[in-house]
Amino acid sequence: MRKFIVLLFFVAIATTSFAQNPWKGFWKPVSSDKVFTTSLQTGLGTFDWKFRPTVTVVAQKYTFTGDDRVIDVSTLNSAGVGLSIEHFIDIDGVPYNNFGVTAALLINHDINQPVAISPCPFVGVTALQYLNAGIGYDIGAKKLFMALGVSYSFN
Predict the structure, then answer these.
(1) Per-residue model confidence as pLDDT tens digits over 90-106
(2) How far is CA 26 from CA 17, 46, 57, 66, 112, in A?
(3) 133 pLDDT exceeds 90?
(4) Does the structure show a pLDDT above 70 at 23?
(5) Do residues 128 and 150 make contact, with C-beta atoms less than 8 angstroms apart?
(6) Residue 21 forms beta bridges with which residues?
């Protein structure tokens, strides 16, 4: 019975997510005619939300080491793929992604950790189309981290 309920939950999520408009054109480039024909018109201008595939590269990673209150800083040691929901605005008829939220699975490579290669779930906020900052958890080292990096959302 438990397996049936879990299966039903995933089927319901998949059905409702593909029935929503932000998923339309997921694998296609964002263009102004596809974005703003169904977007919201407000006093602040025209905007729309779209789900996009994302690649994230971490430039600096700040790992909290625990009891000794030391922050370990490492550079260019994590990268991964994920999903983001991006906010697009209309600038002179061209869609521009000004911010979004990203969920990704990063692969960490650090020879100083107990496990050299480990997965890291990551949630971040993207600003100005490319800059990304967020938090994650290194499963191999069992430590929380903050990261600054770059995300590319295939717009």
Answers:
(1) 777 778 888 899 999 99
(2) 12, 20, 21, 40, 38
(3) yes
(4) no
(5) no
(6) none
Give how far the C-alpha of residue 92 lies from the chain's centroid of Cα atoms, to the nearest Å.
27
Q: Where are the domains of the chain?
A: 23-152
Tokens of residue 96, six digits: 């521009």
Ramachandran sector of residue 43 (left: φ over 0; alpha: ψ -120 to 50; beta: rest): alpha
Per-residue confidence (pLDDT) for residue 73, from 0 to 100: 85
The full DSSP string for the chain is: -HHHHHHHHHHHHHHHHHHSGGGTTTTS---HHHHTTSSEEETTEEEEEEEEEEEEEEEEEEEE-STT--EEEEEEEEEEEEEEEEEEEEETTEEEEEEEEEEEEEEEE-TTSSSSEEEEEEEEEEETTTEEEEEEEETTTTEEEEEEEEEE---
Residue 124's DSSP bridge partners are 102, 134
Angle at 106 between CA 103 and CA 112, to 5 degrees: 145
Q: pLDDT (tens digit, 9 = 90+) per residue, 119-132?
A: 899 999 999 888 99
pLDDT, residue 45, reads 61
Specify the pTM: 0.69
